[in-house]
Amino acid sequence: MIRSVVRGNGAALPRRIMKNADFEGMVETSDEWIVQRTGIRQRHVAADDETTASLGEAAARAALSSAGMTPADIDLIILATSTPNNTFPATAVEIQNRLGMHHGFAFDMQAVCSGFVYAVATADLYIRGGLAKRVLVIGSETFSRILDWNDRSTCVLFGDGAGALVLEAEEGVGAITDRGVLAASLRSDGVHKDKLFVDGGPSTTGTVGHLRMEGREVFKHAVGMITDVIEATFGDAGITAEDLDWFVPHQANKRIIDASAKKLGIAEQKVVVTVDLHGNTSAASVPLALSVAVADGRIKKGDLVLLEAMGGGFTWGAVLLRW
Fold first, then answer.
1. What is the mean pLDDT of residues 66-95?
2. Are residues 185 and 78 in the same domain?
3. 128 lies in the same domain as 185
4. What is the mean pLDDT of residues 232-254?
5. Are residues 184 and 144 in the same domain?
6. What is the mean predicted confidence (pLDDT) over 142-158?
7. Exposed e or buried b per residue across 240-263, where buried means at least 16 C-beta atoms within 10 angstroms of its C-beta
8. Residue 43, domain CATH
9. Is 280 tagged catalytic?
10. 306 close to 236: Cβ distance less than 8 angstroms
11. Is 253 one of the annotated active-site residues of the chain?
12. Residue 258: pLDDT band by 50, 70, 90 thresholds?
């Protein structure tokens, strides 16, 4: 059978780093308060000349270099983002043009923080369906553009950045030992829309709007939803938590990450945590965490890796792959 195998990965971060202490003169908060409740110590914030498209392009070029490929080798670009450069066209098309790629096709995927997990699962379907041989999957966000900087409950949580993977079709034997995407589980439930949303849009207010969140409600649902899709993915693949080499969760809150891993029986030393470095970068979160763990030598070829995310909507999902 055809598997979607990771050939390369890359990341890009804005130049400016904003520490927790930088918020102390803006809103009523402190470094101690932010670290204790979220695990976040810093985040990157995009300058005026840094956009979702420019960060996505940089991450894409890094992933292509890692894969030993050029844009000419790519058939499809899927960009996961909730902060596109324009309402339309898709920012993926802008990245396609920035890369000098005038063949194939490109589109955006909007599933908020779950976007990258959704995009990897979608790319896998395109590859296994024969519509693409090589896919560039990108998660890129500039959430700083939609934050209310007077709302201390949200402005300290989010950051900007981008990450990318190159997936390529490769023949496998259909066993858990194959490299590539092995299983996935995706879910959503719109009844939770008002718990995490942006209060604007072209069809409603005609404005971009600001991010609004009921933090306690999100936390209350997160662990149960995350374990639901992960257990479904384990069941499809015929594995248990003990078989995993690495767990790469969405980097939103250290307490959610810890509680989810504990409930699933995933050992602490197998969990990749970068929320302290990047904050919550939404669809860029998982690929940024992957890039850190690959760069420092933790994730190696042949490792069994679980990706997981949950975002506004609510959306949530998991992908199991062998690196």
1. 98
2. no
3. no
4. 97
5. no
6. 97
7. ebeebebbbbbbbbbebbbbbbee
8. 3.40.47.10
9. yes
10. no
11. no
12. very high
DSSP state of 6: E
Point out the catalytic residue in the list 20, 250, 253, 278.
Answer: 250
Q: What is the dihedral of CA 233, 234, 238, 239, to 10 degrees?
A: 150
Residue pair 70/168 in contact by the 8 Å Cβ criterion: no
- What's the distance, CA 131 to chain centroid? 24
CA angle 4, 309, 256 (to 5 degrees): 145
Domain limits at 158? 2-171
Per-residue pLDDT, averaged over 206-212, amounts to 98
118 and 135 within one domain: yes
CB-based contacts of 84: which residues, under 8 Å, 6+ apart? 52, 90, 91, 108
- Assess contact for 117 and 319: CB atoms under 8 A: yes
How many C-beta atoms lie closer than 10 Å to residue 77's C-beta?
A: 29
Cα–Cα distance, 103 to 240 (Å, whole number): 41
What's the rounded mean pLDDT across residues 130-136? 98
* Residues 186, 243 within the same domain: yes
What does the mean pLDDT of the chain come to?
98
Cβ proximity of 10 and 64 under 8 Å:
yes
Give alpha helix (H) positions in 72-142: 91-98, 115-128
Tokens read off for 306? 């679980």
Answer with the one of 152, 171, 190 that is the final residue of a domain.
171
User: Would you say residue 136 has pLDDT above 90?
Assistant: yes
User: What are 31-77's pLDDT values in tens digits?
Assistant: 999 999 999 999 999 999 999 999 999 999 999 999 999 999 999 99
Cα→Cα distances 73→43, 124, 236, Å? 33, 17, 32
Pick from 151, 171, 191: which residue ends a domain? Answer: 171
- Which is the catalytic residue, given 9, 85, 113, 210? 113
Q: 203 and 228, same structural domain?
A: yes
What was the pLDDT predicted at 25? 87
If asked whether residues 147 and 207 sit together in one domain, one would say: no
Inter-CA distances, 84 with 26, 89, 248, Å: 27, 9, 25
Domain count of the chain? 2
